[in-house]
Amino acid sequence: MDVLTRVPVREQEPAVRATNFEEVCLGYNEEEAMAEAARCLNCKNAQCMKGCPVSINIPGFIAEVKEGNFEAAYHVISESSALPAVCGRVCPQETQCEGKCIRGIKGEPVAIGKLERFVADWAREHGIKPKKAEKLNGHKVAVIGSGPAGLTCAGDLAKLGYDVTIFEALHQAGGVLVYGIPEFRLPKKKVVAAEVENVKALGVKIETNVVIGKSVTIDELMDNEGFEAVFIGSGAGLPRFMGIPGEQAMGVFSANEYLTRNNLMKAFLDNYDTPIKAGKKVIVVGGGNVAMDAARTARRLGAEVHIVYRRGEEELPARKEEVHHAKEEGIIFDLLQNPTELLVDENGCVKGAKVIRMELGEPDASGRRSPVEIPGSEYEIEADTVIMSLGTSPNPLISSTTKGLDINRRKCIIAEEETGATSKEGVYAGGDAVTGAATVILAMDLLFLLSDIDGLYTDDPKKNPDAKFISQVDDLTDEFMAMGKGTTGSDVGTGGMATKLHAAKIATESGADMVIANADDLEVMWRILKGEEIGTLFKANKSSEFALLDYIQSIHA
Question: CA–CA separation, 108 vs 6, rounded Å?
């Protein structure tokens, strides 16, 4: 065999799968898995493990697969992961474990995800379960949310002997695994339900239909029900919209609502009464994995589907595999385009979208090109359904009903990276509900620039009373950079901002958030970390091509 080329994985034919909700990828059989495992170099200093968020012993389990010891391979994986059948299907391996694979330097990386899936599926088919703790340690822990973060935390704690109860708001356990990811990517009964049962087999109890903050509060769990610690893994399910005219029309959905109706509430099955607007012509706005899921779902419901995304194909944030599958299934990609208005008929229903064409501007010193509108290029796309897939944020219900729980300006729970500890004693958090690496102490991905000004304005507020304050900059484009007066000679913005904006550029392109704020009150950093909207937040936009010395030289050229 060619060791540089991975063993192909079997899939449904595009024309067939675009009409059904059965799983697209059929996975490896035993012979194929052993052949692919033989490509592994069994590195002593395994880079793939460094790319795995839960540090699975990847060379260890692949070595067992190579020898046909599939049960042993499963137990190696289950030491680190409670959801191998899920992770093997939907984890972004191309940017994690497989992205670090040494074999991939000269050829294709080992298909680590497909091998993990094979092992998990084999174990399920042969009744193999993860090993549970021999005895309980007498400590009681509550876990909020039964999505990936909650199930993983609960499984790990149960293996250590903790008495764990998961509280889930919906009627079925699984979180985003059941309401967000479509059946054709992640089968609910065969895979998700089986993984949940494996977690329960470790001794974990699951209570559904419990809304923390409404049914019961975190304080009540700890004070009245004897839980010594609480882990918040409630995810980020609050959708975002563009704020353009027409978004309130009937036929406009968030991707969350559309996918929940179809996945959790089984709208794709004829024998279920859950209503869903299939649509004949559907526009999906966004370019991430969720956008692909929504578009491919609408396609299976019979619609002609357009994905409208403001950048080009190289900038699509979705997994390459998902983009490839979407194209094969007939999804139309309208790239470098952006909606400016949704068109509404006399009955209040969406009838289309006004879209403007974009172009990528000149590269800045980092090499990143930002989309710029092309004046006069607007046109209309007919549509009876529009799905907004623009990201999500945490639901504020838990944070608003829990005393002493600090959040940041993005409503995310502030938690220490290493421990998950929050500002409230005994309460921990992880997954999409938290800030990531931003902690209650000054961290590497949140920088402060304390100044004599409040932040970025559209003009000098001392001279122009109509100058507007800018609280957040998502993408530090040339337009924003031009607001820096002083060294730039610009006629807009706050005086003396040029140097500060260059600092923000360096920080964000390097992968760090940065806040410019007034230093009159030295407690301002703590107040910002607690979630107060102070100063201007520049969001990280990490570029792999950013070169600090080149950027500095370009400034002084």
Answer: 6
- Please, which residues have CB within 8 angstroms of residue 293's CB and are 6 or more apart in sequence? 180, 181, 182, 185, 255, 259, 322
Q: Please state, in angstroms and rounded to a whole number, the distance separating the CA atoms of residues 406 and 415.
A: 9
Cβ-proximal residues to 233 (8 Å cutoff; 6+ apart), any chain? 143, 144, 145, 147, 148, 149, 150, 152, 153, 429, 430, 431, 433
Task: Say if residues 115 and 65 touch (Cβ distance below 8 Å).
Answer: yes
- The region that residue 286 occupies, defined by phi over 0 for left and psi between -120 and 50 for alpha, beta otherwise, is left
3-state SS assignment for residue 474: coil
Strand partners, 189: none
Q: Is 129 in contact with 202 (CB distance < 8 Å)?
A: no
Q: Is 164 left (phi over 0), alpha (psi -120 to 50) or beta?
A: beta
Q: For 478-531, how does the pLDDT look when each residue is reduced to its tens digit (9 = 90+)?
A: 778 877 765 444 455 555 678 888 888 888 887 778 888 887 766 677 667 655
* Rounded to 5°, angle at Cα 39 from 33 and 42: 110
Q: Rounded to an integer, what distance in angstroms lies between the CA atom of residue 323 and that of residue 317?
A: 10
Mean pLDDT of 47-73: 94
Q: How far out from the chain centre does Cα 284 lie? A: 17
Strands 350-360 and 371-373: antiparallel
Q: To the nearest 10°, the Cα dihedral for 139, 145, 151, 156?
A: -30
Residues linked to residue 493 through DSSP beta bridges, in sequence order: 459
In this structure, are residues 287 and 387 in contact, taking their beta carbons and an 8 Å threshold? no
Other CB atoms within 10 Å distance of the CB of residue 400: 11
Q: How many helices (H) and strands (E) does the chain have?
A: 20, 24
Task: For 479, list phi and psi in degrees, rounded to 5.
Answer: -60, -45
Cα 295 to Cα 412: distance, rounded to the nearest angstrom: 28
pTM (predicted TM-score): 0.75
Domains of the chain: 10-125 (1.10.1060.10), 140-237+394-433 (3.50.50.60), 241-390 (3.50.50.60), 446-556 (3.40.1160.10)
